[in-house]
Amino acid sequence: MDKPRTALKPATRGNTAAPTGTPDIMTVMTYALELTTRLDQNAILQSLVDSARAVTGAKYSALGIVDSHGKTLQFVFSGLSQNIADKIGHPPLGKGMFADIPPDNRLIINNIEEYENRSAWPKFHPVMKNFLGVPIRAHGRVLGRLYLSDKETDFTELDGDNITLLGQAAAIAVENARLFEESNRRAQWIAASRSITATLLEKEDEEESLELISHEMRRVAHADVSLLVLPSVGNTWVCEIATGEDSFQYIGLSFPEDSYAQMSIREGNGMVTDTTDAQNNRTIPELAHFGPALYAPMVARGETLGVIVLLRNPASPAFDLSDLSMAENVAKQAALALELSENRQSDAKAAQMEDRAQVARDLHDFAIQQLFATGMELSAARDTLASEGVDLTVLEALDRGIGSIDESVTQIRQIIYSLRDPNATVPFMDRMRQEFKKAANSLGFPLDVYIRHMEEIIDDEETHTEIDDEIGSDIADDIVAVTRECLSNAARHAEATAVSVQLLINPPRVSLTIEDNGKGISGQVSRRSGLSNLAARARRYHGTFSIHAGKDGKGTCIEWIANIA
Concatenated DSSP letters for 407-475? Predict the structure, then answer.
């Protein structure tokens, strides 16, 4: 017989010695009460099959727990050696007399050989002479079926009554165990939610925060892999964060419009799927080897910021509605905390930049202007004294003073650059060269750089501060930021062997083109790459931003244009 696809989770096996005798009702009640005191489901099920043998005097007993589709999720037995069980390899497949067990009554067969609907015994399975099957029910649904066989005498209706009583006690115990486990899981979810919220409000790095969310959700949900799907360029949604064994291979995986992930995003509601649902496997082949899945959208103020996808291996049980409810709540709280964290960071950065800008304006409007005026007065005085034939040493002293003023102006100008951008400690061209050097170190090869200012090609190591004066500090800061972002993406995602940069400064227009010969847009465009911010930087200067395939349809080409006011 074919083995079922779902792997088994057998509990600890009971004693293989065959019991003797049939206990009275008080003994049966004692067994039943003992079952209801347990809170571990595996222990409950094993105790049930052991007690069933003791109550009936049967040589073998077994219990199959089934899901809503009738598939065996867990199989527990007593009286059969582990060696024989391993050789059999799978539980009953629900055919023959096993399928004939009524959902609300027992089935007694005292001569299996004469039962017309019996099936052949699997290889290595002991031949059994009689059979008692009882359904285990809870809340109107069959949780499983309890089988007993090989009693020395015939099974009786009293045996059926006793086993039914044990089954009812076991159902109560299983429900209590389920509620206890659910309570523990809820406590774990609440603790994870608090941890996520507290950490998000403390951490400044958004990517670390997202990794924390993914890790905590996977841990408390007992999932094998957790994926964080976030908005990317255009209308695409891409896995940006993945945790779990070998999960790095799913980073960058795109989720199509007909996937469950996008369905959850559009509707703003979570969902669970089990191993029998193959639609997700068809739409995303890379995830076809997973079984049960849970989708929890990250919703804040009516907007879906992303969706958390939790995946289990096919042998694992499906996520239940309790898992879904808690995961949705944690995902929503994480979305709110993430939004608050981003707003807090934005406000702090805006306040800091405003303070820096104010200091820079004051230095420019007062200190530099005053030094300029002083320098002009000294130059005029020097010329007057020179015409009157003053001693040469006096004129040289004035020249040194005027030179010191010029150096002070240059130093203050560099301080102004530093205040506008903490990394901007040098003029624009030197900052750009620093970005090129950093990118070359990351890429492992030099960049092909072409810079032209008006009609002059810039290929020397001079600072060319006249460019700073023409384009202004704001556009200079954004050009450096755009260059850094694009080159960083090329180094991290493109797998390129060549990268070219073309910067054309022709006031009132500045254009930046960065092209690589890597694996193309689909492999490197993602929310984490920050490309969506580049378009906003261009719009700030009434410019444009575009990303498309490079020459001959290979690689990626990014074009960024700004207009100087």
Answer: HHHHHHHHHHHHHH-TT--S-HHHHHHHHHHHHHHHHTS--EEEEEETTEE--SS---HHHHHHH-HHH
What amino acid is encoded at 524 in this protein?
A: Q
Helices and strands counted in the chain (H then E): 15, 16
* Cα distance between residue 353 and residue 313, in whole Å: 49
- The kind and range of the H/E element at 150 are strand 141-151
Q: And the tokens for 88?
A: 């059999």
Q: Which helix (H) or strand (E) holds 186?
A: helix 157-202
Report yes or no: 305 and 340 within 8 Å, Cβ to Cβ.
Answer: no
E strand or H helix that includes residue 61: strand 58-66
Q: Which of 292, 289, 298 is nearest to 323 (CA)?
A: 292
Contact 561, 511 (CB under 8 A): yes
Look at residue 394 and tell me whether its pLDDT is greater than 70. yes
The widest CA-to-CA distance across the chain, in whole angstroms, is 138
| Domain 25-181 top-level CATH class | alpha beta
- Distance, CA of 224 to CA of 311 (rounded, Å): 6
The residue behind tokens 């409000």 is: 201
**Cα 414-420-421 angle, rounded to 5 deg:** 90
**Please, are residues 482 and 534 in contact by the beta-carbon 8 Å criterion?**
yes
The number of CA neighbours under 13 Å toward the Cβ of 379 is 11
The 131-138 sheet, strands edge to edge? 72-78, 58-66, 141-151, 131-138, 107-109
Say whether 427-565 and 25-181 share the same fold. no
Q: For residues 91 and 8, is the Cβ–Cβ distance under 8 A?
A: yes
pTM: 0.47
Q: What is the dihedral of CA 172, 178, 181, 185, to 10 degrees?
A: -150
* Chain CA centroid to CA 61, Å: 44
563, 265 contact by CB (below 8 A): no
Instruction: Give the whole-angstrom CA distance, residue 275 versus residue 288.
Output: 10
Q: What angle do CA 399, 402, 406 make, to 5 degrees?
A: 135
Please check the confidence at residue 393 and state whether its pLDDT lies above 60. yes
From residue 37, alpha-carbon distances to 34, 144, 167, 185 in Å are 5, 20, 14, 20
Can you tell me which residue has the tokens 């997202």?
Answer: 210
CA atoms within 13 A on the CB side of 458: 23
Residue-wise pLDDT for 479-519, tens only, equals 988 998 889 888 877 788 999 999 999 988 999 999 999 88
Mean pLDDT of 304-328: 85
Q: What residue ranges do the domains of the chain occupy?
A: 25-181, 203-341, 427-565
At the topology level, CATH places domain 203-341 in Beta-Lactamase (3.30.450)
Answer yes or no: are the C-beta atoms of 133 and 116 closer than 8 Å.
Answer: no
Write the CATH number of the domain with boundaries 427-565: 3.30.565.10
**Interatomic CA distance for residues 500 and 213, integer angstroms:** 37
Alpha carbon distance 475, 472 (integer Å)? 6
